[in-house]
Amino acid sequence: MQLDGVTVALRARAPWEATDLGIALVRTHARPIFGAWVVVTLPIFLLLNGLCYLLGPVWLAWILMWWLKPIFDRIPLFILSRAVFGAPPSLRESLSAQWNWGWRGIWPWLLWRRLHIGRAMLLPVDLLEGLTGATRSARVAVLARASGSPNAMLTIICVHLEGMLAVSIIALGLMFVPVEFLTESARAAWETLFEDPPAWALLLTNFNTWIAMSIVEPFYVGAGFGLYLNRRTQLEGWDIELAFRRLASRLSQAMMVALVAISLAAVSITAARATESSSTRAETADATGAGVVPSPAKLPPVVDKLPLEDSKKPGGGDREDVATLQAIFADGYRDDSADFETAVKKAYADPDLSPKVTEFAWKRRHPRLDEPSRSAGLPGWAQALAGAISFIVGYGLWIIAVILLIFVAMSHRRWLPWISDRIVRERALDRVESREIHVPEVLPVDIPAEVRRLWAQESPRAALALLYRASVRRLADAQGTPLPPGATESQCLRHARDLPDRAYANLFARVVRCWQAVAYAQTLPRVEDVETLLGEWTAVAEEPA
Questions:
Q1: Would you list the DSSP string of 142-171?
Q2: Which residues, 6+ apart, have CB-to-CB distance to 334 below 8 Å?
Q3: Which pLDDT score is estimated for 217?
Q4: Distant-in-sequence, close-in-space partners of 495: CB < 8 Å, separation ≥ 6
Q5: How does residue 216 score in pLDDT terms, banded at 50, 70 and 90?
Q6: Which of 144, 153, 353, 459 could bridge 148 with an S-S bond, Cβ 3.0-4.6 Å?
Q7: pLDDT per position as a tens digit, 296-354
């Protein structure tokens, strides 16, 4: 791994700061990541939807696209893993790498690890490091020791973001609907997309979810890769290694200058000594030839009577005398090889350098009576209290579940009739809806009497529809101009607010609310409220318009 070419500042970060680093990497390399993503995932999306459309279950295409997410995650992971070390791949390299990169480590993520909540940070272990078996388990345990919770929260957050983005795209379409048609459009969209969707609506929903997945998933992979980089930096000290490499590069330049200076000084000193030695030998030769004995101060130093040991040359043959270190250093010689070896063994035996060993031991779940107990020294009441507390803590969830089941069983006389009444009431409302009669086109003369007659015949929807139509007719007469064809309740309310007669405007608003509650929410008003509306409607109708 070439740490010298890394393009990010490697240092120990907090987990959420590391996710920000991964998201920033995705933003920096957005063009190759999203370009390769669209080129790979869009044909697969079209192929799966076409096959599912021909076979029948169009909704299965969305599930298959969701299930194949680990395969698609290789695209941003490959680009980021190269780009962070200074070698961002091109689009062609990224596409060609998808055929032969990481298939061995991706199959478990499509099978038993598909629902793993930590896919973002653990996927690089399989695709980048290629670990398997016990080595992978140990590696995953070390990586997740400090970043397991942020990794799980990252998955939960991105799942919610993807869902909200898919819903927001549908809501964006409803934003362009006029306000007066919003209620009907929202109801029609719900019925078309969710209650009984046709094939084209399912295809549109699948395309909507693919857009949401394509926006969120690369950032999810990038945030997990940031957690992975941060954890490896903490464990392996990448930042410290880079600091030492930079320090060594700075010192190497200074060392080169110092070595050159030292070499020049050594050469000059050697030349000076050679000159001095030659002059000394010349003086000695002159003095000997003249019969003069040289003074001891001018003689070269000689080691007299050094004990020598015999050795042979590497090439074999003649013997030569070699002086030992003990003979050279005499009393100053000290044999410390044994102490040095002892110090090295002690250093390697230090716990900081030796690898950690995990030991497993079997213990009895129920210790024997002769084994010492922690509560042996406690009095009897304290031991009983400790046993009760341990039992409640150990089996608390089961105790709560049993209490809830007993409570539900004992209160069935309250909630079971309530559920049955609700079911019967909803079915009865459907039967009443089917027996309703059509409101006549010509309004009767006595509106309150006709409304009461329809209400007595168990046709509340027809009764309130008649009252609403009569109120709209009176609103048009009060304005003196006809209302627009197909005017909605909201338009009628806006026209009613312009009337000078505030009593009729308030009455009309109450009639509209009752009609909307019956027509859209299937909520019937009370008989007393209907009688009050009819009384006020009669009083207002008797007044001159």
A1: HHHHHHHHHHHHHHHHHHHHHHHHHHHHHH
A2: none
A3: 93
A4: 475, 479, 483, 487
A5: very high
A6: 144
A7: 444 444 444 444 444 444 444 444 444 566 677 766 677 777 777 787 777 777 766 66
